[in-house]
Design a protein that fits this description.
217 residues; mainly beta; Immunoglobulin-like; five-stranded antiparallel β-sheet; Tail fiber protein
Length: 217
């Protein structure tokens, strides 16, 4: 067999296959059709359509399921609660999960910034961090790539590499195009200057939407 259908991978002969091998070709085709039908049948059964429930993530990872089936972790002490989706390689984080133990966004001990409106969420194995900070004290003036920490991601939400995002800042209604948000591998969330002598005035507002994969999910 030298070709497959794109969705279910059902194999079929092509002009390069020999007629004398037709019995083997038909057998392979029948087997792949049966495998595809079996997968569809499993999804239609109560066992294949009912969510798989587990107390913690380690327990869920040992449980089987049908591709596309949902699972839920309800009482994980490390904060990995929420919905999961069964894929070819196991369970993947699915749905949107608000912060919890181990999956939180802690504000840094920084009197210069008010980051209380910043939020962190998990969605389909991706991390969504909504940054919204206000400059509380005197103007913040930095040269290019100078940084200051404003928040810390929990251990389950740290990215596999550094990620840079463009922030949107307003100084009394005027836009400041040269500010960024840096998310580091240790979970540190930094405000970053993208130009020399870049100034953020007192009471200025910075917003940024950050989306990146996590190490854990």
């Amino acid at each position: 067999m030298s070709a497959q259908t794109p969705i279910y991978g059902i194999e079929y002969p092509t002009e390069s296959d020999l007629v004398r091998d037709i019995a083997d070709h038909l057998k392979t085709e029948a087997q792949t059709v049966e495998t595809a039908l079996h997968e569809v049948d499993q999804r239609a059964t109560p066992a294949g359509s009912t969510p798989v429930i587990a107390q913690n993530y380690d327990q869920l990872s040992t449980l089987g399921g049908v591709t596309g089936q949902t699972g839920y972790v309800t009482n994980d002490e490390s904060g990995r609660n929420g919905m999961y989706i069964r894929g070819a390689n196991g369970w993947t984080r699915g749905g949107t999960t608000a912060p919890a133990d181990g999956t939180n966004l802690e504000l840094a001990n920084n009197d210069g910034w008010d980051a209380t409106d910043s939020k962190a969420y998990l969605f389909m194995g991706m991390m969504l961090v909504h940054i919204r900070v206000t400059r509380k004290t005197a103007n913040w003036t930095k040269n290019c790539y100078q940084q200051e920490k404003i928040a810390q991601l929990g251990p389950l939400l740290r990215p596999p590499q550094h990620y840079h995002f463009r922030g949107f800042a307003t100084n009394g209604g005027a836009k400041v195009p040269d500010v960024g948000i840096l998310v580091q591998v240790d979970g540190s969330v930094m405000i970053e200057s993208l130009a020399n002598n870049m100034t953020i005035n007192k009471d200025a507002l910075i917003t940024c939407a950050c989306i990146f994969p996590t190490v854990q999910f």
